[in-house]
Design a protein that fits this description.
The protein has a single domain, classed as Ribonuclease Z/Hydroxyacylglutathione hydrolase-like (Metallo-beta-lactamase, Chain A), CATH 3.60.15.10. 20% of the residues lie in helices and 29% in strands. It has eight helices and 14 strands. The chain has a seven-stranded mixed β-sheet with strand order 6-5-4-3-2-1-14. The termini are close together. The structure holds zinc ion (3 copies). One zinc ion (ZN) binds next to loops.
Amino acid sequence: MRIRFLGTGTSYGVPMIGCDCNVCRSEDPRDRRLRTSAVVESGRFRWLIDAGPDLRAQLLAAEISTIDGVFLTHFHSDHVMGLDDLRAITDRRGSPLPVWAPERDVPALIAAFPHLFGDSRRPGWSANLDLRGVRDGERIDAGEERVRALEVPHGRGWSTGWVFGSSFAYFTDLSEMPSTVRDAIRGVDVLAIDMLRVEPHPTHLNLEKSLEIAADCGARAVRFIHMSHEVKHAEVDADLPAGMRLAYDGSIVESG
Ligand SMILES: [Zn+2]
Ligand SMILES: [Zn+2]
Ligand SMILES: [Zn+2]
């Protein structure tokens, strides 16, 4: 299994509009972060995790024109506002593209995208998407993978982590990882996990909390994602423990 990070930035992206801090002005390409999203490739299948507002640019940069399914983590703009770009993918497909989303977010997705998921769908105008609500703890079959949905708190809301067997776990936008979820993913080969910044934050993990959770879960390789302009790649990455790295846009990690 191969995981490619299409974007690793928080909702504003990095650089942030109008900011002249040293990260936003950095010439290190690893400090340029589109909104957080990833692609998982396994055998002949390719899955997209989240569809944020940078999706079109991300798929073009990665030269991706086919996808076999989409996993959404939660209904926040930086994770769903690129769904419309999937028309270019579904136009090339003969069958509907599955979109697995947390069941709690299905009404909001239909309300926000009536032309994609609601009654105003029009063949030829709307992406041919098959929205499927998934409950916490549910396992679904995606190609040759068993993928499990595990809910985690995201401030006062929720986000869903997607766990691909014992190969890969993806948890963005969380403020804590409950012990039941830690137990469920313990020993996973690769873990991608939210790490907004060094300072604490009410709805996201900061460096200290992410490190604690990553160490507790015992993944062989850890990649931190969803970073703000307060994270200078070269500085933070240099101090991480063995096996743990900051992801950056376009970076790849192999699993299992
Ligand atoms: Zn986010
Ligand atoms: Zn900045
Ligand atoms: Zn969020």
